[in-house]
Amino acid sequence: MPPPPAPAAGPIAAGGIAVVGAGIAGLSCARALHAAGRTVTVFDKGRSVGGRACTRREEPDAGAVLPFDHGAQYFTVKDERFARVVERWRDEGVVAPWTGRVAAVEGDTFAVKHTPGLMVGVPGMNALPRRLAEGLSVHSDRRVTALERTGAGWTLRFDEGPPAGPFEQVLVTAPAPQTAALLTGHAHFTPAVRRAEHQACWAALLAFDAAPALPFDGAFLNDDRLPDGSPNPLAWAARETSKPGRPPTPERWTLHAKADWSDAHADRPPAAVLPEMVAAFTALVRQATGETLPAPTFQTAHRWRFAHVKNAAPAEGAGECLYDSAAGLGAAGDWRLGGRIEGAFLSGLALAERAAP
Questions:
Q1: What is the pLDDT of residues 254-298, one digit of tens each?
Q2: What 8-state DSSP symbol labels residue 323?
Q3: What is the pLDDT of residues 120-146, one digit of tens each?
Q4: Where are the domains of the chain?
Q5: Residue 4 CA to chain centroid, in angstroms?
Q6: Is the dihedral of CA 68, 71, 77, 82 positive or negative?
Q7: Cβ(262)–Cβ(201) below 8 Å
Q8: Whole-prediction pTM
Q9: In this structure, which topology does domain 1-73+125-196+312-357 adopt according to CATH?
Q10: What is the residue-wise DSSP string for 61-73?
């Protein structure tokens, strides 16, 4: 089943609630507000919804499309509130189990792990945010740079174009540093947001005309060192073609670098990082399986500046979000609950409940 179409933006209506960020937290929040009958408008700096729950389509040749889940690789379900939503998505064909063989690779051995309950979007991870965004007013390519409060409410200012507003409330679901920058001087909980810490992640996207039939479809690359003794930059590798609903050819792999390595190399250009990641994957595969990877026929790299949550923001009480009722400002995100798609969804849901009880 193809994913729902991207949401149409439509005109920006003043009043109601503005949500900044169209990742899973922002869309979860906006969808709950919309279902409660509130007027809600979503703004995002990106070209499409989803944040790191995304699918990148590369077209190296005319007519050839290579899809990669270059952000979130899969998700799991633990909370009953999220489980109910995921069950509906599964019935609709928006998500499906990923039953690929996931291994732990250490030294010259690998062990396939028992990993039930891994879920993915179909035909890509971006199916989740697109489903959440259905029926919402979402404005992409709108980077919010400042909030201004007047007697009429909150006005949003952007890096380009006219301001929007006034809005009764503004709920920010961007990564913690960006959220704190917008809310400083406006919301009492901003110091808590500042204490959340993110780490970067480099992703390498590889395609092969033909590749060895490796004995795993996903792998945690746990070694600190490569066979030659140099530091291992990689944390994860996944065969895109093993996930449900993906084109079976050509062979495609997504690699994720370790968080500390990504932080240390965050400011390097993709062209400098990519060869190191490809060489590391080739060496680890050869050591663990004896197989030799051919040179990729396509390769590129992407840096996620705020990929991993190193330290979650402390809560006010036991809340899953942060909210200032006097100011009409709130914040949510995976940085509040320690990462994971489920955490982002629940944080956004909690913020909607605080903003529109």
A1: 999 999 999 999 999 999 999 999 999 999 999 888 888 999 999
A2: E
A3: 999 999 999 999 999 999 999 999 999
A4: 1-73+125-196+312-357, 97-116+198-311
A5: 18
A6: negative
A7: yes
A8: 0.94
A9: FAD/NAD(P)-binding domain (3.50.50)
A10: STT--EEE--S--
